[in-house]
């Protein structure tokens, strides 16, 4: 990781706003629509190049790909790991439960999430390494062109995957977490091998109450 003795290097959380074109690609993939995959890949590649360029332009030192290829920071793994299918009903937060009028307005405006949260229904293992390989290639190429001080990539923690995608297969939650950790290790190691800083998203430490 690049360091500095002159100032604190600037960075951010990782996820950045997607364009309408990127959003359309992500939801089409979520619905498994038949589309021109090469064209969709080109949309994501161009979006990563642009978002990295803009980060450097505004003075961000350690940049990310903005998670352009990921429909969410936890459920994206369903395209990469086996064992996930279906959907999980969403429970609104307590603040929205106490103000049902606001919850209804958010739903009417389309502000509630539309993507699936599949459940674990089988053994978890690496299913398709290509999405990660493409992510690494896109960020590496964008960084080579824009010359940031460094680049990082987000990856979900086992806990946050388990929190958003409940276990219907493994005998215990610990067994589920162990299987997730083993499968996700391949993603973590590939990111590091590529010379990219690994940022593990682990909001489950606060959200999951020990999950």
Q: Overview of this structure, please?
A:
The chain is mainly alpha-helical and 211 residues long. Helices cover 45% and strands 9% of the residues. It is built from 8 helices and 5 strands. The longest helix has 21 residues, at 37-57.
In short:
The chain is mainly alpha-helical and 211 residues long. It is built from eight helices and five strands; from the N terminus they run ααββααβαβααβα.
Question: What is this structure's SSE topology?
Answer:
Blueprint: H1 20-30, H2 37-57, E1 62-63, E2 84-85, H3 94-98, H4 100-108, E3 119-120, H5 130-146, E4 150-156, H6 158-164, H7 173-193, E5 197-201, H8 204-207
Question: Which short descriptors sum up this protein?
Answer:
211 residues; mainly alpha; two-stranded antiparallel ribbon
Helix content: 40-55%
Q: What structural category do the secondary elements indicate? A: mainly alpha
- Poorly predicted sequence stretches spanning 5 or more consecutive residues: none
Averaged pLDDT? 88
* Spatial ordering of strands, largest sheet: 1-4-5
Distance between the ends = 30 Å
The Cα radius of gyration reads: 18 Å
SSE succession: HHEEHHEHEHHEH
Strand content: 5-15%
Output the number of helix runs: 8
Number of strands: 5
What is the overall shape?
Answer: globular
Note the main sheet: 3 strands, parallel
């Amino acid at each position: 990781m690049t360091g500095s003795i002159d100032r604190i290097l600037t960075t951010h959380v990782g996820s950045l706003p997607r364009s309408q074109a990127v959003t359309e690609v992500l939801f089409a993939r979520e619905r498994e629509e038949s589309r021109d995959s090469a064209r969709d890949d080109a949309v994501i590649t161009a979006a990563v190049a642009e978002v990295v360029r803009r980060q450097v332009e505004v003075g961000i030192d350690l940049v990310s790909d903005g998670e352009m290829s990921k429909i969410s920071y936890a459920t994206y793994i369903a395209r990469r790991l086996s064992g996930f299918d279906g959907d999980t009903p969403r429970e609104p937060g307590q603040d929205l439960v106490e103000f049902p009028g606001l919850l209804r307005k958010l739903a009417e405006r389309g502000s509630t999430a539309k993507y699936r949260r599949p459940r674990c229904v089988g053994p978890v293992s690496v299913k398709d390494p290509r999405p990660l390989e493409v992510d690494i290639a896109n960020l590496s190429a964008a960084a080579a062109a824009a010359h940031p001080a460094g680049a990082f990539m987000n990856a979900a923690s086992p806990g946050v995957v388990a929190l958003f995608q409940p276990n219907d297969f493994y005998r215990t939650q610990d067994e589920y977490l162990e299987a997730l950790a083993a499968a996700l290790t391949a993603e973590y190691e590939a990111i590091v091998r590529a010379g990219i800083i690994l940022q593990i998203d682990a909001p489950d430490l606060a959200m999951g109450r020990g999950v």
